[in-house]
Structures are given as structure tokens and as C-alpha cells.
Design brief:
The chain has 305 residues and is an alpha/beta fold. The chain contains 13 helices and 5 strands.
């Protein structure tokens, strides 16, 4: 018999984690539940430990069992899991989140626990649906974002949904008119997007970003700093391909690929031209935005020059 006290989540890892946290937060807003997390990959975890969760207590306490399954249980171990679901006590809720298990729906233990809980399968969000997901997530948090704000969030996070969700929560925390403030203060985010598009060799996107930055007063110094930083990072990776750098995974992959393609002569030439761009800007000489566009084209595709 299915229980409303057992939730079984599986599918896209990011969405599983997000849905699990939302569900547990909603439960704890209603009742002051204790929460115990079980990581099945932990060296200290034993499936037999679940037996104690079904033992009667003289002083039962409302409790959420947060069970995170990242590898399939053996046959004997799966019996502990099924027993836990079958004999759940009145004061407890169970949230089972399953990730990275192949052929999940064909496994006997999974079919068994479905008899006792509510199943939610969370499908992968494809690139062409990511903006729609961001907008819907904002609505779920009570935020109505316009197209401009949506574009800024998407560009800033480069389609990373976890990062996008964090930005939405930040807008909510900022309060009234926060979307407008968020867009107006997005120059630092545009600098990151510019750097990422440069190392990804996306000329059109890079030029689109600098056109947006033109309208943001004082962005010139940030742009020069950002380009210098990427050139230095590329130099570090040229010297040591295993060097540890900080940044989002997609960005670091792009940086690594770029470092393997660009040569030391091109790097030195780009550093000199960036320094000249900086010097001319500080002296009020030259056309900063025109020279910057040429520099960006050369950064993305040195063969053009």
C-alpha cells in the first residue's frame, strides 16, 4: 500500500536534489522535524542500520529520513530498504533520492519500494528548455522576471541551472524592484560571460557582450582586468596543464581546451595589445571599443590576424 509519507525521487541529478530540498523544507515549515541523512556511498553506512528506524520508541520524535542512494543495494541489503518502507512508523517521513543508477526501473528492489511510496521521475532539461525552466522556477518563488532579466541570468550562468536558481533566490532576497537592480548591476556578471566566451572562441557572443557593456559606465577597467586574467590563466595552463584553477566546470573545460590550442607567441602578443589598450584608455587616446573588438577577434581566432 502506497504511503504519502514516502517520496521516491529519481532522474536528473540536479532536479532530484532541488526537489528533495524543497520537499524537506516544506515539511519542516509545518512541523519541527528532526532530519537524519544517510549516504549509501559512505564507508560508515550499513543497510542493516535502517532496521533501528522501525523500532518502537517510548518517546517518538517527528523525523525525516533522508536516504540518498547512489549505488544499488545487494539483494540482502535491499530487504532492509523494503522493510523500512513497508513498516514506516507514524511519526516519520522518508525521502529516497536515487541518482546515477543504470536500468533503475528494471531492478527488483526499486519496483518493490514503489509499492509503498509516491514516485517522481525528473527528466533532464535540454538546452532549448532551460530558459523556460528558469522563468518557471522564478514564478514558483513568487518572482515575475521580464525577458531582459531572464537573458541576463541565462548569460551570466551560461545555462548552468544550479547557478541560475541561486541568482533567482538572490533576486527574491533583494526584494521590490530587485529585477531592475539586478540587470543594472550586471556588469561584473557580463565580464565573466565575456571571459568565458573568449576562451570558448565565441566571437559573436563576445562582441554582443561588449556592446552591452558599452552602456554600463566604468566597465572599461573591468574588461581590461578580465582579459588580463584570462591571458594569465592560459599562461599558467600552458606551463602546467594540471594546474588547479577556480571556476565553474564548463568554464574550466573551455579554458583548458583554449590553452592547448593557443601558442606562447600569440599569448605574448595578446598581452602586449591588452596593455596598450589599457594605456591608451588611461591617457584618453584611441578608440577603446573599436580596439577592444579587434582584440577580441584576435583572442578568439588568432589566425584572423
Amino acid at each position: 500500500m502506497s504511503s504519502s509519507k514516502i517520496l521516491i525521487l529519481h532522474g536528473d541529478t540536479f532536479q532530484v536534489e532541488l526537489e528533495r530540498d524543497k520537499y524537506i523544507k516544506n515539511l519542516r515549515n509545518k512541523v519541527n522535524f528532526e532530519r537524519e541523512i544517510f549516504f549509501t556511498k559512505s564507508s560508515s553506512f550499513q543497510w542493516s542500520n535502517l532496521l533501528s528506524e522501525n523500532e518502537d520508541s517510548l518517546f517518538p520524535v517527528p523525523k525525516i529520513l533522508d536516504l540518498r542512494i547512489e549505488s544499488p543495494p545487494l539483494k540482502d541489503d535491499s530487504e532492509y530498504l523494503v522493510d523500512l518502507c513497508m513498516n514506516i512508523s507514524e511519526e516519520k517521513y522518508i525521502v529516497i533520492s536515487i541518482s546515477n543508477i543504470e536500468r533503475l526501473k528494471t531492478r527488483a528492489w526499486f519496483k518493490s519500494i514503489l509499492n509503498y511510496g509516491k514516485e517522481i521521475e525528473l527528466k533532464k532539461i535540454w538546452p532549448n528548455k532551460k530558459k523556460e525552466w528558469i522563468r518557471n522556477s522564478a514564478k514558483n518563488l513568487g518572482i515575475d522576471i521580464d525577458t531582459n532579466t531572464l537573458d541576463v541570468i541565462f548569460e551570466k550562468t551560461q545555462g548552468n541551472l544550479l547557478a541560475a536558481y541561486q541568482e533567482i533566490k538572490m533576486i527574491k532576497m533583494m526584494g521590490k524592484n530587485s529585477s531592475k537592480v539586478f540587470v543594472e548591476n550586471s556588469s561584473e556578471f557580463d565580464i565573466f560571460n565575456l571571459c568565458n566566451s573568449l576562451v570558448s572562441e565565441k566571437i559573436d557572443l563576445s562582441i554582443e557582450i561588449i556592446n552591452n557593456l558599452k552602456s554600463q559606465k566604468g566597465s572599461e577597467a573591468l574588461i581590461v582586468w578580465g582579459i588580463f586574467r584570462e591571458l594569465e590563466r592560459l599562461s599558467i595552463l600552458k606551463e602546467d596543464s594540471q594546474a588547479k584553477l577556480n571556476g565553474p566546470f564548463d568554464y574550466l573545460e573551455n579554458l583548458s581546451r583554449k590553452s592547448k590550442k593557443i601558442n606562447f607567441n600569440d599569448l605574448d602578443d595578446l598581452k602586449k595589445k591588452t596593455a596598450l589598450l589599457d594605456r591608451n584608455f588611461k591617457k584618453g587616446q584611441g578608440n577603446f571599443w573599436f580596439d577592444l573588438e579587434n582584440l577580441i577577434i584576435e583572442f578568439c581566432q588568432p589566425k584572423f590576424h
